Amino acid sequence: MRFQIPRSTDFWTGVMFISFGAAALWIAQDYPMGSARRMGPGYFPALLSYGLAGLGLILVVRSMVAQAETIGAITFRPFLVLIAVALFAVLLQPAGVLVSAMVLILVSAYASYEFRLLETLIVAAVLIAFSIAAFVYGLGLPLSVLPNW
Fold it and tell me: What residue spans define the domains of the chain?
């Protein structure tokens, strides 16, 4: 009998949950635990990590027992949303709200298969105007609107 790694979404989701739970436990290993009555700073992260890893273990076992949905073709377009958020974080300080929000909206909208440039530009103009009005002027956050170049 040969063991084969399942190609189900449940299996890989479980592996991801176990990995995140283990990573969080490793990061928080030096935090004092305390007790249930007097919790330390490491108690709740450890509890969440064990819960996440346990849920991942349930998913892995379930994927080996039951027939689950298989993984389709991997597309990289949805990762553009993560790239857009990272670009926004990097560009916000030097480029200002206007440019960084425009990059965020255009790159993340391009991740959709229904991307239309004109519609995206109109939505971007409205969202950027609202963001500047709400965050820069309304809340008074110390953000520059235009680039500092």
Answer: 9-65, 79-138
| Residue whose pair of structure tokens reads 């027939």 in the numeric block | 67
Counting beta carbons within 10 angstroms of the beta carbon of residue 41, is it exposed (0 to 12), middle (13 to 18) or buried (19 or more)?
exposed
Work out the number of other CB atoms within 10 angstroms of the CB of residue 84.
19
What is the reported pTM?
0.58
Other C-beta atoms closer than 10 Å to the C-beta of 28 total: 17
Spell out the per-residue pLDDT of the chain, length 149, in tens. 566 667 778 888 999 999 999 999 999 888 888 888 888 888 889 999 999 999 999 999 888 887 766 666 777 888 899 999 999 999 999 998 999 999 999 999 999 888 899 999 999 999 999 999 999 999 998 888 888 76
